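Narrative of activities, Objective 1.

The group set out to show that a structural description can be obtained from nothing but a protein's sequence at a throughput compatible with the screening campaign. Below is one input-output pair from the validation batch, recorded exactly as produced.
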Amino acid sequence: MKYFGVVGLILIWFLVFVSFVEVNEGQILTTLDGPFKPVTVPLDQSFRGHAVDLPDTDPRVQRTVKGFEPEQISVSLSATYDSVWISWITGEYQIGYNIKPLDPSEVGSVVQYGKHIFSLRRKAIGQSVIYNQLYPFEGLQNYTSGIIHHVQLTGLKPDTLYYYRCGDPSIPAMSTIYHFKTMPISSPKSYPKRIAIVGDLGLTYNTTSTISHLMGNNPDLVLLVGDVTYANLYLTNGTGSDCYSCSFPDTPIHETYQPRWDYWGRYMQPLVSKIPIMVLEGNHEIEEQAENQTFAAYRSRFAFPSKESGSSSPLYYSFNAGGIHFIMLGGYVAYNKSDDQYMWLEKDLANVDRTVTPWLVATWHPPWYSTYTAHYREAECMKVAMEELLYEYGVDLVFNGHVHAYERSNRVYNYTLDPCGPVHITVGDGGNREKMAIEHADEPGKCPEPSSTPDKFMGGFCAYNFTSGPAAGNFCWDQQPEYSAYRESSFGHGILEVKNETHALWTWHRNQDMYNKAGDIIYIVRQPEKCPIKPKVIKPWLLQNYKFDLMKKLI
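Output recorded for this entry:
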């Protein structure tokens, strides 16, 4: 018996020891362990992804409702936890040479909702719009949308499940019952459990893999950091290409095939009708048309908390999600110090209370710290204009898309390793048909010509040769830059889990991996005691606006 007792103790000790070793070997690194030596994961030639667009014959993108019944239903957040937006579309779009827009006033915008599925006693009424995509050239087809409805629900409780249905009860044409959950109250102790972050999504077979993996991670919120449908890779007759300029170099205007937006809305409805989605514009949303109009689909199809966050434009806004303040910036709207966006950003940052929302996360579409040849230093003018302001206010994390690959930086500011700089993460690998970015600017012969790098829509040139550091005198590094911690060309999505005031777990998931596996994983650690926010003197006009906004909240 004593023998078995000793053996039992040894066995227990051995199991504990093995468990201890496994835990320590599998210990998740943190940004405090960095800066990390740059890592490039070799390209897996056997997996390039099925980046082919879903056809209009796919049942997941076809219209299944009748008459003015709601479709393409989605939920998005307002600036604070106590309000959300419900959006949907009724009626059929038209595309052709003789289109007749629908009349939005003929269909009501009503949401019935409540905390109990059998008691939807509360009602909210909203507004509706239609938009047109018009081309003043012979042979090009015009488009007019279905009726797009946006209804704001207010007075909601935090972290609470609500049921709803939308439509026009007078027709009657109401949806089935859906549900959503509000964000937690803004405080340093409460956060959404999981936030999915994805960019450059499109509507390919690889997109379906991304969304399937994303839904498997059960997010409470989805951030789409630009490039939604890639409708502008098509002509108005529905002919598409992986490279528009290569296939259609002589079109009089950059055409689009707007029904791709409707296909995307139908495909995404099972996810975004219950999980709020916050969208930011990318370059593929510009969509030029008659009279120099741009962003018509983007502005019309989504609801944004622009007004609630003090912005005059849906191209930039902010919102809270628990103890996180998100700033959604526009890479394709003026951003210099004298422009509205910059002045709005300055005011928004000055009003952030880090004792309430400790985490400050900024997103925009074109990255500042990408080492891929594609779009290399394309947004340098935006970086020159805004980076110092974001650094002074202690932005913790930055998320971008645009480059069709994954990359995570060390903490960086002005191309220099800085323990107080933000971590920049590019997630432009959602699955679009333009395929992946695979070449790096630091590889021999892959550094682009500087004059070719500025964004054509925004113009300007700010990307000069480096004046200091290992790349001094050159436009590109000759090896993976020290600020680049990890890069890989694979499709996927990311999950952000903020644990408390100082620690957030970031995981990136490849599409080719199993659902429970992470390709990149790290704890992002804030150090407010080491990186205090510089005291700011609020300009008189900022203070006046702040007091005015505060009075409005109190009334």
